[in-house]
User: What shape does this take?
Amino acid sequence: MTPDSQPVTITGIGSVSPYGPLAGLISKLSLEPTTITAWTTTGQRRAFLVPPFRPAAVVPGVKTRRLDRLSAWALVASSLAIKDAGIDLTQLDRSRIAVVFATAFGCIELTEAFYLSAAANGWNGTDPITFPETLASAPASHVSMFHGLRGPNITVSNKYFAGESAIMQAACVIRQAQADLAIVLAGDALARSLYAWYEQAELLSTACYNSNPVEAGGFIPSEGVAALVMESSARVKDRPEARTYARITSGRWAAGGHPAEIIRQMLCGSRPRLAICSGNGEPCAVSPTASFVREIAGDDCVITPPQAFAGGLAGNGALFHLILALGNLAGIPRLHEQALLLGTARDNGFAAILLELP
Amino acid sequence: VLSAEYVDDRSGSVVEFHRKSPFLALLTDPHKTIVVTGIGVVSPYGIGLDCLQAGMLAGKCCLERTTNVVYPGFDGSVAQVRGLPLLSENSGVRVSRTDQLAVMAVQDAMASSGCDSSTFRESGIVMASTLGGLTEIDTGIAEDPAAWYRRPGGLLRAASYPFAHVADAVGEHFGMHGPRCAISVACASGAMAIAIAANMLLEGSAPIILAGGSDPLCPFTLSGFNSLQALDPNPCCPFDQNRKGVNLGEGSAVLILETLAGATARNANILAVLRGWAMNNDAFHPTAPQKDGSGLADCVRLSMQMAAVRGDEIGYVNAHGTGTPLNDTAEANAYETAFRGRNRPIPVSSTKSYFGHCLGAAGALEAAVTIMAIRSGALIPTLRLTNPIESLGIDWLRGEVKRQPLPLAMSASSGFGGSNTVLIFGGGPS
Assistant: This one.
């Protein structure tokens, strides 16, 4: 995404999160972790969990019985985002609609189930229905199949910036005339083996074990899928009823080097007045990002800190950070025509997306 | 090429599209022309494109019928990479077999470009894999995860599980600072990584991007394909009427991609031009392609539209050609449709008959084979193709290697979930 490239507009939002399935921005902030009951634990274990719901009750006709929860949530979140965008897919050329999905762990629950079938029956006795549903790209494929979307279908990942990467790849296929519209999704589901890994690696907050307030030094794992509808800004002009949540004007990400220099180059002299921190789940995410914002945007830049549950999404939280930040701007003075969605990592890695807010 | 007309088969009309094509700049602007300046390959033939080329030109098949390889009780044909050099592991970083294959392929790509890793300090990486670090994990992780992690090295082994880890392993090994992106779209992954990298170069995301795929043999996938009854126990025979299924292989391939302007400025050796690319989805079924191949046919047409070439100008298609009954029928139908109107049948072969289906690496390995065909003028035939699918529009390459000048060639990939990616390569500028 170069500074002179055509902007792309976010016109629809949907999500399945610990707040449940929702269309549009999320303006709630208060959220308590809930106790894990999906598998047996020794003592109480807590996380930000998606409350059980019936997908067909939210999206009539959707069939999810054999799918990983991640695929089911992707179907629901994409449907809510499309509805929120006010788009009638039957009126569009669906070969021009892309799906870009970001995930760190993919369909980890059915991967566990496949391993269990191998443990029980041997490798020659595994379950043929489960196998294709273990693919990391299965959720994106189901979104294409359910909505009949025949444009590019891409599943991406990045250790720290998978969500940001998905936004930038989607903007890219639109600007490169490979699609007119993109459904962008990012998320993960929490599974037993993943939670145990966090626990054994001693990454978890004490709030995972008791109901005391969250302390620094650990994080609370979470789960969910967020979806955005992104369209070329030129297309949105022809659709006066379209809602504009934000316009994406440019973006950069790298694994190291000189991030401040690269971001300043991207900003072309402008100074965003709002920075939305897309923390990556690491305990140290907040302060390095904040000091980095100060370095490139000055002291008067309002910083929206990483959102608690989105920070537990291991690199996939960017869409949720954005949805939560935009949903909770009420108390912040409207000085922020430009906003920076910014994630940082150790070793100078970063992802920065410049947004114009309506 | 610039006066090419695009034949729209669906309407039967011929449209002058290039004047209004958004892709015109790709043909005329050196900042928008994507070139290949290095190719790295780790295949069952060994390390290097020369090794692969010598083996394939000699008609050597790497598929072997084995028992109890990969997992106890397995009986079938696979193609293995033997003697893979072990990487010295950085402290605290676990390197899976997927990572190792990728790192060796990148090292080979850098060597083929005549540059060391310092040239690629600011480069990006787009690496595809369907497995990531699944090779490091066994059933114990699902049975009792906490106990599994407490095993020596358990936590580090699990850390290599996400498919994003392959790009990180490469980046860390070579000290690359550019953007890192991991792609996983089943069997189209390797080709899509190249398409995504090309998109990123057009956006100016990095001056150079190394793109490709890596996947090893692993009980998880071998068992999965076995459960679907998709494996041929004997070496596969793609596009044959008596084909019985796919064989799995392992490997990695990486292309060094940059703009023509960038390559020229640093005096790089240009091996090929990536003339066009397209990605789409069948939106049809989790594991089966549409029988009429319409999704792949559309993808082929989109790639030709981007490259501003007619079907007549494509000299060879390196097909996905898995050897499964469903894939090969759909694929033959796709080429019949997409190349309708050619004045001679389109030459097609599947090189999976030599080294099996390398899953996330397949599209990248086959891109390397396609470039090899362009540079050598040698069209590699499908092995064991005795009774091809009946198709008037397709020249099934079989028997001897066919030698002819090859200005443009295509590599097609498809995967579970309906993803298709098509790449069109041409020779480097004279």
User: Anything to note?
Assistant: Chain B touches chain A through 80 residues (CB under 8 Å).
